[in-house]
Every structure is written in structure tokens, then in C-alpha cells.
Specification:
By secondary structure, this protein is an alpha+beta fold. The chain has helices spanning 35-50, 53-59, 63-66, 177-181, 191-200, 219-227, 240-249, 252-265, 302-315, 333-346, 359-364, 390-397, 402-407; strands at 2-11, 14-20, 24-28, 77-85, 91-96, 99-116, 122-137, 140-152, 155-161, 185-186, 212-216, 269-276, 282-288, 294-296, 321-325, 351-355, 370-375, 381-384. Helix 8 packs across helix 9.
């Protein structure tokens, strides 16, 4: 899954935003330009997909906290629209007369508007989903259709479009289409799974919200790795990182792969393992070539811990969209070039979105991967691509590096 398009109006520092995203995206900009607000939009999207619009708004501190602060006495309507593209993550198999058909979601378009009423309350003006579905038999596409869901007052209404274009054998799937059309789905349901269950009698094997990981490189992350016990069961773990580490380091093939990647960026390390201490807690231990003993996690440098998390997220977190918020903190410039190479490599099979202040990341990224956030003359955040700038192209043609232009604020 990847997010290929975002449009919004009146959210945080953005008045009007329309941006298309690719597989590897590097977000840069001055302090206060709006990078954190852009990352917040992804958190908002994840909350919407995982719960409901109301819960997602509450998680952001209420409708007023989302609203553009320059519009406090003006426009009170907030809009967000986005497109999710899928490969085969959201799919299920259904059997018709002994023949297995795969039902696969390929794209979801979401669009909604709500009006801020007071400090915490809001009124939804528009809430709509379009879901593109393709049907396969023996990996051969046999048809497609579109589910359209629109909100009216406090219910969702359902409509199926273009299903008359599918193969004859699939018509049986829509025997109860009229009944489903008249059903009212309560807001707050996991609406996609509810409709698929009613329409096809199946449950999807995944959900979009579970495909998104957001990594913020703060002190809390360091504490989780350095001082918390690694946990085998994700449900029992308070940290996604400790769960991932436990399962990677207790699988010999994964442990070897993890160590090889770690030694690529930190060549002085000779081994990494899990140690059961006196309190029966599982702790990560690392062996350096300088000492014939293992070092406990609490003695590792912050940069080492951050590099471990980056490797975990890139190669062992199976989610299809990974967002990094300033991952380069405390990492040496020489190592950053290797990290960027890793991210480029992994972006062939998962989408990477990276927010940074570091010119080394800009230096080793390609210009088409760069998104520049800046404030316009009215104070609103805007996003542009330096690759579309003739001035930037002229500088690059004259051997002035992208990182130098970034440092001099000439992008």
C-alpha cells in the first residue's frame, strides 16, 4: 500500500495543499515551515483508517486544534482528500461453484469535509469513499467494479458501480445487491470490512491502518530499546520496537541478516543477540571487536539505537508505508549515506516518507525525491518540488550541489 495523493484545505499551517507522492519522499524545509504539520496529516489519515473520523479528530486534540490557526475568525471548514494504492494486501478468496476467485482492492479514494463549530465540536459536511475492486481467477483479471460510499446525516449509504462489466460467473456475488444498497451503515463502523462482509460474505485479510508505521526518533524510543525488556507477544508489548527486536533476534536467519545490515553501517560490531538477565528480562546485547564480551543495551550510544530502529523498520517491519521523522539525529554523516542507500533500496517494495534537516540526506537523495516545504507571503505552508525549478536546474548544471543549495536556503 502507498499514499499516492494528498489534498487538504485549512489544516494546521496549510491553507490549500495538493501533492502527489512517489515511492521515496524526502521532506525538507526551514524550522517552522510546516514539516511536522505535514507528518501530522499522515497520523490523522492512519487514525481515520483505523477507527473513525470522530476518534481521529479527538486524537488530534479536537477540531479546533486541526484548523489552520490563521483562519480562526474566517474559514471554519476543514477538508482532507487522499488516495491509497494497493497491490494485493487487501484481498480475499471466495469460492463460486468450486472455482476460487480473488477479490482485490486496488485503490481507495477518501474525501471529507467538516465544519468547526466551537472549541471541540464539529459538524460533518461531506464524507465519501470510492473503492476500486478487481477480480481474478488463476491470477488472470476477470473484471472490476467500484464501491461508492457516501455519508448522509449519521449513516453511510452504499452504491456499487460498473459491476455489469465483470464476467458472467461473478454475477452471483451480487445476488443481494438491492438489499445491501438499502442498508444503513452506522458511522464509526470499520466501514470497508462491514460492506465486504455483507456483500461477499468475506473478511479482508488486512486493513489499511495496519499498513502504516510512523517512527519518531525521540527520547522515549531510546528508553524503550535501552531499558525495556524485549517481548515475544506484540499484544503484551508496550512497544512495537521491542516486539520486533525480540522476534528478529530469536530467529537465526533474521538475526544474521540484522547483524549483517548493522555491521554494514557500524563495522566495529561483531555480533548481536538476546540475553536473559537475572530478572528474567530479555535484553539486547552487542559485541564489539575491541572487547571479548557483550555490551548491554543501556550502554549503547543513541546513534547505535537509532540505527537499529531504522534497520528494523526498513527490513523487518512488514508494513508497506514507513514514515520517519528526523531519523538522522546523532548519526555520523558518513553513515547517513549508507542509510539513504538502504532507504532507496527498500523503497522498491515499500513507500518511504522521511522528514529531515540534514544536508547529507539531501546530498545523497535524488532531486526527484525531494519535497520542499516553505511559508508563502501570507504565512501558509506550501510544498514544491525543486526538480520543477529552472533556477535549481541551472545551479545543478553548474556543479552546485543540492545539499549546498539546501544549506543556503536557495531551493
Amino acid at each position: 500500500m502507498k499514499i499516492s495523493r494528498i489534498e487538504c484545505n485549512n489544516i494546521k499551517s496549510f491553507k490549500n495543499l495538493s501533492i502527489n507522492l512517489i515511492d521515496f519522499n524526502v521532506i525538507i524545509g526551514l524550522n517552522g515551515s510546516g514539516k511536522s504539520n505535514f507528518i501530522l496529516i499522515f497520523k490523522f489519515i492512519k487514525d481515520i483508517l483505523g477507527s473513525s473520523l470522530k476518534e481521529a479528530i479527538n486524537n488530534q486534540g479536537g477540531a479546533k486544534q486541526l484548523r489552520n490557526y490563521y483562519e480562526e475568525n474566517g474559514n471554519s471548514t476543514i477538508r482532507l482528500s487522499f488516495t491509497l494504492d494497493f497491490f494485493s494486501e487487501l484481498s480475499s478468496i471466495i469460492n463460486i461453484h468450486g472455482i476460487d476467485y480473488e477479490i482485490r482492492i486496488t485503490k481507495i479514494d477518501s474525501d471529507f469535509e467538516f465544519e468547526v463549530i466551537d472549541n471541540s465540536d464539529f459538524k460533518i459536511k461531506n464524507d465519501a469513499l470510492k473503492i476500486n475492486i478487481e477480480y481474478f481467477n488463476n491470477k488472470v483479471k476477470t473484471g472490476s467494479s467500484e464501491i461508492e460510499i457516501k455519508r448522509k446525516d449519521d449513516i453511510y449509504l452504499f452504491q456499487l458501480n460498473n459491476y455489469d462489466s465483470i464476467d458472467y460467473e461473478l454475477y452471483e456475488l451480487f445476488a443481494n445487491i438491492d438489499e445491501i444498497k438499502n442498508k444503513k451503515y452506522l458511522c464509526g463502523d470499520i466501514i470497508i470490512n462491514s460492506i465486504f462482509d455483507d456483500l461477499f460474505g468475506i473478511k479482508l485479510n488486512n486493513s489499511p491502518a495496519k499498513q502504516i508505521s510512523i517512527y519518531e526518533f525521540e527520547q522515549d524510543l531510546l528508553s524503550e530499546i535501552k531499558f525495556n525488556s524485549l517481548i515475544r507477544d506484540e499484544k503484551e508489548s508496550s512497544s512495537h520496537y521491542t516486539y520486533l527486536l525480540y522476534n528478529v533476534l530469536n530467529d537465526e536467519n533474521k538475526r544474521r541478516q540484522f547483524f549483517n545490515l548493522l555491521s554494514y553501517v557500524l563495522p566495529d560490531y561483531e555480533d548481536v543477540k538476546v540475553h536473559l538477565d537475572a530478572d528474567k528480562d530479555h535484553r539486547i546485547m552487542v559485541k564489539e571487536r575491541f572487547y571479548n564480551r557483550y555490551i548491554p543495551a543501556n550502554l549503547l550510544s543513541n546513534g547505535t539505537v537509532f540505527l537499529m530502529v531504522i534497520i528494523l523498520s526498513l527490513y523487518f517491519d512488514e508494513k508497506h508505508l514507513t514514515i520517519f521523522d528526523e531519523p538522522e539525529r546523532t548519526i555520523h554523516p558518513n553513515v547517513i549515506s549508507k542509510v539513504v542507500d538502504m532507504m532507496k533500496d527498500v523503497s522498491n517494495f515499500k513507500q518511504i516518507i522521511l522528514s529531515t534537516h540534514n544536508p547529507e540526506i539531501v546530498k545523497f537523495s535524488d532531486i526527484q525525491n525531494i519535497l520542499l516545504i516553505y511559508r508563502d507571503e501570507d504565512g501558509y505552508s506550501q510544498i514544491s518540488r525543486p526538480t520543477n525549478s529552472k533556477a535549481v536546474s541551472t545551479f545543478l548544471d553548474n556543479d552546485i550541489g543540492l545539499d549546498e543549495l539546501f544549506v543556503q536556503n536557495m531551493l
